[in-house]
């Protein structure tokens, strides 16, 4: 109604004393300087375009960072017994109905009609990995089966929620699913925790661990939940890092460990996840044959360390303030000749370093003095 009262929501923040206000203002000022959108433009790493909202264009320097991160994770996969797979991007809606995503997540998926059938771009890899597990008979000797996938994912985020690289529609994850027997859960969770500690230590991040347990509404038998939660708690104790429990905050299909990292500005980000899943194996009727020749149901562990590679690049850009560690740097070497007479030699040096695998440039601008270069 035209004469109805209107309300306006106003957000504010207050501080007990001027000192804390100044500290907060200093952090905000530093955060603005480190904004990954600003640094990404200045360093020619990436950009966005209105014709593909929420999907990032990575330029050569940004693609180097992207591929270096994935190469790093791939090298760790080989050491830790993961097998990389490649799965389709498009699936018939029947797959998502089986997994339960169509009933609970369809509004966040890009779907379309083709030949009187409904299809959708995958927003996650797990249902496809279930098909890969189930395409032939499996033996207990194959478990744990650690299946890794860098497949492209699409999620239909609201346009107003899109924020640089931290919230996008098109992204990739260091996604993996571990198919294992119940008595292998502890060992696999310990391996996942060791994996993330190794990666985060290299990045210079500290992290916090939270065990989220059975919610009020859950699927499955309570005895299975109790054993799974105990397995996670035992693994966390063995890991040796402090952790907290968040009762009732687990997913309806299994308990999980939430991991948040802290950056240089003391901001927390959730990237890694370790999630037990009892329901997808049931929905897809997954089985393996045990050592007695009987069919048994595997458990799935969903896990990621980087999470979204795009989001991790945003976090790293701001954490390092654009001053990249050498192994990740998009500009590792700059060859600067002392004068035009040495340009050819400088370019030869640049070429040799390039062939050796370094990101290298040569400043051959005759218009600049040596001091300016």
Structure, described:
- With 373 residues, this protein is α+β, with helices and mostly antiparallel strands.
- It has 2 domains: 33-320, BirA Bifunctional Protein, domain 2 (2-Layer Sandwich), CATH 3.30.930.10; 332-372, Rossmann fold (3-Layer(aba) Sandwich).
- The chain has helices at residues 18-34, 36-42, 60-79, 93-99, 101-105, 126-134, 185-203, 222-239, 279-283, 309-319, 343-355; strands at 46-48, 56-58, 83-84, 90-92, 111-114, 117-121, 145-149, 152-154, 170-172, 175-180, 206-212, 243-246, 256-262, 268-277, 288-289, 295-296, 299-304, 333-335, 360-362.
- An 8-stranded mixed beta sheet has the order 3-7-10-17-14-13-11-12, sandwiched between helices. Strands 4-6-5 form a 3-stranded antiparallel beta sheet. Strands 1-2 form a two-stranded antiparallel ribbon.
- Strand 13 (256-262) and strand 14 (268-277) form a beta hairpin.
- The protein is globular.
């Amino acid at each position: 109604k035209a004469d109805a009262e209107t309300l306006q929501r106003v957000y504010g923040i207050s501080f007990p004393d001027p000192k804390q206000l100044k500290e907060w203002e200093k952090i905000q000022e530093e955060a603005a300087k480190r904004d990954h959108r600003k640094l990404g433009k200045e360093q020619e790493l990436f950009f966005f375009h209105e014709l593909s909202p929420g999907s990032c264009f990575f330029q050569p320097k940004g693609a180097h960072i992207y591929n270096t991160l994935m190469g790093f994770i791939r090298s760790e996969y080989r050491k830790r017994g993961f097998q990389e797979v490649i799965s389709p991007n498009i699936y018939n809606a029947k797959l998502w109905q089986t997994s339960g995503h169509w009933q609970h997540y369809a509004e966040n998926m890009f779907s379309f009609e083709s030949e009187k059938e409904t299809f959708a771009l995958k927003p996650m890899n797990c249902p496809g990995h279930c098909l890969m597990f189930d395409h032939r008979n499996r033996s207990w000797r194959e478990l744990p089966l650690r299946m890794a996938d860098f497949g492209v994912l699409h999620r239909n985020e609201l346009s107003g929620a899109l924020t640089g690289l931290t919230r996008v529609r098109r992204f990739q994850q260091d996604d993996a699913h571990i198919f294992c027997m119940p008595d292998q859960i502890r060992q696999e969770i310990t391996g996942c925790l060791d994996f993330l500690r190794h990666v985060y230590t290299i990045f210079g991040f500290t992290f916090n661990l939270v065990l989220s347990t059975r919610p009020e509404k859950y699927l499955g038998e309570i005895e299975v939940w109790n054993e799974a939660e105990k397995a996670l708690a035992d693994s966390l104790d063995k890991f040796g890092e402090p952790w907290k429990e968040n009762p009732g905050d687990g997913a309806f299909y299994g308990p999980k460990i939430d991991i948040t990292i802290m950056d240089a500005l003391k901001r927390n980000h959730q990237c890694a996840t370790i999630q037990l899943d009892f329901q997808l194996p049931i929905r897809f009727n997954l089985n393996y044959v045990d050592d007695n020749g009987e069919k048994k149901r595997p458990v799935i562990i969903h896990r990621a360390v980087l999470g979204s590679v795009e989001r991790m690049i945003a976090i790293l850009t701001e954490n390092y303030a654009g001053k990249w560690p050498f192994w990740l740097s998009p500009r590792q070497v700059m060859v600067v000749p002392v004068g035009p007479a040495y340009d050819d030699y400088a370019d030869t040096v640049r070429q040799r370093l390039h062939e050796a695998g370094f990101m290298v440039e040569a400043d051959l601008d005759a218009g600049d003095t040596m001091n300016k270069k």
